[in-house]
Amino acid sequence: MKGPLSSKPVVFKKLCIGCGIRDTKCPAEGVSAIRMDAQRGEPSPARCGLRIGRLLMQRGMILSLLLLGAGVTTALAGEMLRIDDFEQGLSPRWEKRSFQGETSYSVVTDNGGRVLRAQSQGTASGLVFKKEYRLQDYPLLSWRWKVKGTIPKGNERAKSGDDYAARVYVVFPHWFFPKTRTISYIWGNTLPRGAAVPSPYTGNAMMVAVESGAEKVGEWQSARRNVLEDYRKLFGAEPPAVGAIAIMTDTDNTGASAEAWYDDLQIEKLITR
Predict the structure, then answer these.
(1) What range defines the domain where residue 240 resides?
(2) Residues 39 and 101 grouped into a single domain
(3) Helix, strand, coil percent content, the chain, rounded in steps of 5
(4) pTM: predicted TM-score of the whole model, two decimal places
């Protein structure tokens, strides 16, 4: 880096995973991770947001702690395939699916990066990204999300309350549609974090509360799931091929309003040690 700031580290916001060690050092060689306040000459209190994971994964060096059931497995995340990071806008591969009205989806700037914003006013529509792959090859799914609030009358166990500020789906299609299965990773309303229940509409759609309640509302949260293990646990069988990844913010059953943001959806290989 040239110029008067050459002696000070800088940040690339759209590369941040919130590593939490920005005030001391950066784990990526050759990449500066700390944002410095030009006037005070010290690390800025703002979220540095360095998604170092993206750089390290390209070198096959990122080490992840994955919660699998009640235990913790040390694992090395391998090759990554990006679904969308929205830096170039909304990929044309996303297809709209409307159930009740239209939830608004638009790419906006948030904290220096491009993200997808969803706004629902008593509506239910989603975006579907068709991608066929085997969970045995790419078992991990990761993303970032943020919600403005949960659904006051939301209830995961009742059709009348089946609304969520944010959902990320993995779809397992079947030629006979009633046998299509989905895992829906939700920002729950009342369902405890980590709990899973079937959709009030069908047992072929399982919901897992990755986040829940209002504690982390308004804050970006990173999520990573071993979908292969989740499928085995939820359905008691080996999974068929994945057919699509989908996202949805919906409030049609309660008539409420919701706003959420999504970013950095990707699938990854996994090598356990």
Answers:
(1) 79-272
(2) no
(3) 10, 45, 45
(4) 0.73
